[in-house]
Amino acid sequence: MLKPLLFSSFLGVGLCVSALSADEAKAELPKADADGFVTIFNGKDLTGWGGLDGFWSVKDGVISGHETKAGSKQTFLTFTAAKVANFELHYQYKFATPDGNSGVQFRSKLIDPATWRVGGYQADCDAKAGYDGSIYDEAGVAGGRGTMSNRGEKTTWDADNKRHNDKLAESGDALKGFIKVGDWNDVVLVANGNHIVYTINGHVTTDLTDESPKALKEGVLALQLHAGYTMEVQFKDVRIKFLDDSK
Description:
Elements: E1 2-3, E2 38-39, E3 49-50, E4 56-59, E5 62-67, E6 75-84, E7 87-95, E8 101-112, E9 117-126, E10 135-138, E11 147-149, E12 153-157, E13 163-167, H1 172-176, E14 185-192, E15 195-200, E16 203-210, E17 219-225, E18 231-242
Parallel strand pairs: 12-16
Antiparallel strand pairs: 1-6, 2-18, 3-6, 4-5, 5-18, 6-17, 7-14, 7-18, 8-9, 8-17, 9-10, 10-11, 12-13, 14-15, 15-16
């Protein structure tokens, strides 16, 4: 399911994206391909995305999120052309620096438009493969549940907001070995109803079922720059298929 948002950004190659008001022109969602996937980063500029000036740019066909520790902020590049509910998202990411923390927000909320601060479900990742493959509750928007589903685990939050963990076929340590530190990682992230599956490089890293009253059903998609680092994180080949929202 997709719902248009009321803000967007239209900038040229290599320029940093700036925050725009709700009165700015909104982007049109590109047409889906034969398989139903919509390419939401065009490889040339940040059309359809919004964020803080000086933190995001396009270079060599990839989205670059970059900051210095002294000037860092907890800020996000937000996909502004549509909200997301049920979807299958494909993308690649890598860290171009030895340190850093990031992730992809989904079904999330823009909680501070002035700084483009976003909170909600996050497919977590970092430069040292410490958190890659886990689902995190950024800013406590999903009920203050921290790491909601760890790498190597199948987790269910029941209707009483109680957590139940089982092990996946591959352990967290084994799955860490498939993360490419300093190189491109292929992600498939599926959110359908209350079920979320995070896959990296062909391996299911975590499986989350969220039946809690705190569960998130719909919201924005965004890329994170975590405060406190001198870092660069890159994203490319970002495509999404919107799934039937009847589940």
